[in-house]
Design brief:
By secondary structure, the protein is of the alpha+beta class. A five-stranded antiparallel sheet has the order 4-3-2-1-5.
Length: 142
């Protein structure tokens, strides 16, 4: 499956809904923006706003290429902070499973402290983005 710059794609969540991302660049490893949106599979793609972006990362393209993260449309890429873009471009690509865990944790479906480093997800967020009120800990999800 082919993906291109500006494609909007879905990331499956544990509750049957989908998180939303967008391909920002398609260099050797795609740089993708991930949002706070949660929507059903059949929702229409809509442009992202800068305020919706919670994370920006290079991601192993496997889930985009094989359709696990289905592309649902093409929209203009929102303005992204230069600092977040620089930080993302200088970092190593993340495994898609980490992004899936982050988005599930954002929506309270996976523990925010579910990794050995209890602040792991905090470090994946864009500058100025904080853990959401919907986030749950291991104890709250038990």
């Amino acid at each position: 499956m082919r993906y291109d710059q500006a494609d909007i794609f879905l990331v499956p969540l544990f509750n049957g809904q989908y998180g939303v991302g967008q391909v920002v660049t398609t260099e050797a490893t795609p740089l993708c923006a991930f949002t706070l949106r949660q929507q059903p599979f059949d929702a229409v793609a809509a442009p992202l706003t800068p305020a919706e972006i919670i994370a920006l990362h290079k991601v192993d393209a496997a889930h985009l290429a094989d359709g696990t993260w289905p592309v649902i449309g093409l929209e203009q890429i929102p303005q992204i902070s230069a600092l977040d873009r620089l930080n993302a471009l200088e970092s190593d690509p993340l495994d898609p499973a980490i992004i899936e865990a982050l988005l599930n944790a954002w929506h309270g479906l996976y523990p925010w402290d579910g990794f050995p480093d209890r602040t792991f997800f905090d470090g994946l967020l864009c500058t100025g983005v904080s853990k959401p009120a919907s986030a749950r800990t291991k104890g709250q999800l038990a």
